[in-house]
Amino acid sequence: MKLRDWSEIPADLKNRHVKEYYDMLSHNRSYLIHKRICDIVLSLILIVILSPLLILLAIIIKLDSRGPVFYRQERITQYGRKFRIFKFRSMVMNADKIGSHVTVKDDVRITKVGKTIRRLRLDELPQLFNILSGEMTFVGTRPEATKYVNYYTDEMKATLLLPAGVTSLASIEFKDEAKILDGASEPDKVYVRNVLPEKMKYNLEALKQCSIRQDAKLIFKTALAVIR
Question: Global pTM?
Answer without folding.
Answer: 0.87
